[in-house]
Amino acid sequence: MENRLPTSDQDFVESLIPQRFPFVMVNSISEYSESHLISGFEIKEDNIFVQNGIFQASGMIEHQAQSVALHTGYKFYLLGKEAPTGYIGAIKTFESLRLPELGQKLTSEVSIINEMMGVTLVDIVTKLNDEVIAKSQMKTVVM
After folding, report:
1. CA of 102: how far to CAs of 49, 58, 98, 118, 142, in Å?
2. 73-87 pLDDT, tens per residue?
3. What is the H or E stretch that residue 76 is in?
């Protein structure tokens, strides 16, 4: 399969995850390896997690989880296979240092700590420009 990175082709990015509008919280991939991925997301007015111009913490968690799904989806894309559906199995930690505003662009780095039998443990750091605004560690599970 062709390596198409970096990309902000919304149709391609959405083909890699199970979510659909209005629940899509990723719109670009800039880097991928077996152990990491960097995703991006621009916060738009029609986003269901925007309240009074602020992207809520629940949206940040969903953006981070979809970044993990994007890692899995891109891995399967490179293998020429359809990506499985995944779920958040557990959120071990989540820290939001500040909430972003409408129109801002998030960048999240997913670091795979361990992957075994469909369960993936990841660290995720979300930045706004170069400022860390959220961190989490979660387990995701694929069907």
Report:
1. 10, 15, 13, 35, 31
2. 999 999 999 888 888
3. helix 57-79
